[in-house]
Amino acid sequence: MQKYACLFPHAHLTLTPTLHLRDKVSAPMNIWTFVYLVIGLILLVGGAEVLIKGASKLAVTVGVSPLVIGLTVVAFGTSAPELAVSLNASLHNQADIALGNVVGSNICNVLLILGVSSIIAPLTVAQQLVRLDVPIMIGVSALVMMFGFDSLIGRSDGLILFIGGIVYTVFLLYQSQQEKDPAVQDEYAKFGEKSLSFKETGLNAALFAVGALTLILGSQMLVNSAVQIAEYLGASPLIIGLTVIALGTSLPELATSVMATLRGERDIAVGNVIGSNIFNILIVLGLTSTVSKTGISISESARVFDIPIMLAVAMMCLPIFFTDNEVSRREGVLLLAYYSLYVGYLVVDAVAPSSIWAIGIGVIFLPLTLLIAGLLGWRTWTKVKRKRAASE
């Protein structure tokens, strides 16, 4: 098995530590472990929703425009579950869960959420996303991979990411003053009008506090349950973070994007995903690394496989979005197929790390991803050439 170690990055993490991890289990896993896991996910999603409502109404009360609220409070709010879980995991020395949550959520956002949304209806991609936001997402993903070369995202690295998140937020605030799209204006106008009612302000403050406390409680239940399951199964906490926790913390983005698609606001569905991915890296991973005493350690499997996959998935967005400024149903099926393959790889890796099928997926997945990205780029270039030839 040693000769496959470089091709099958997760295997060496799940074979030798199994007995060691099981010896550390403080309490036997039972049905309540899964109940707490589900309750934790529900509290995270519900807490994020309550937090967004309370914060949005409070911002309106103090005179912040609805558009700015949508671009900042809501963007932060949909990433609040990731922030709560990663901070909680980092403070309890669960670096694999903290990192896996961010990396897994970013992969899930593009492959699963955009896949599902585009199958419901082809998604419209705004020019700004292609020109600015997607390149930023690719850039910050590459920055994480660069910071992780030494197997650690240190506090200084985290501070750089967090400052970048502040700069990006300031840019969004400036950009909001230039927004002219009526559809976007209508979307953000849903937060209501300014109210000076003391009773209503108190209620909104209470909602904000309840949302924050619910997020904290939910993240604690989720992390504790996930760690206990990982220890019992002998699986790496990184795999739990990349799958169960990442999917759970991405539920607000999934709900937001699907509802926007059903309402016909298909450009907002795409923007929500890209914005969330940028915030996850800059704010969530940046703040988590900054407040951690030792930074976030990166396992070899995450460094050589999962983070490069996150970068490859981000890069795939550019040729897909650039093609007719749309994510078609066919491309949505492709994205979903990739997500199924990725999760399947992680599951088989955890259950049967010596499986030839699992080794085969580990060998072909990354090259195949890069190949598809290259083919999509080539197709886009040929379409551009044909359009130029036709215009001449």
TrEMBL record:
Q: How does it sit in the membrane?
A: Multi-pass membrane protein
Q: Name one GO molecular function term.
A: calcium channel activity
| Compartment(s) where it occurs, according to its Swiss-Prot or TrEMBL record | Membrane
Domain Sodium/calcium exchanger membrane region: where?
33-173, 205-347
Q: Which domain of life is it from?
A: Bacteria
Q: State the UniProt keywords alphabetically.
A: Membrane, Transmembrane, Transmembrane helix
Q: Which GO terms describe its biological process?
A: intracellular calcium ion homeostasis
Gene3D superfamilies according to UniProt: NCX, central ion-binding region, NCX, peripheral helical region
Query: Which is a Gene Ontology cellular component entry for this protein?
Result: plasma membrane
**Segments crossing the lipid bilayer:** 31-51, 58-77, 97-120, 132-152, 158-174, 203-223, 229-248, 269-290, 302-321, 333-351, 357-378
The record ties this protein, via NCBIfam families, to: calcium/sodium antiporter
Name under which the protein is recorded: CaCA family Ca2+'cation antiporter
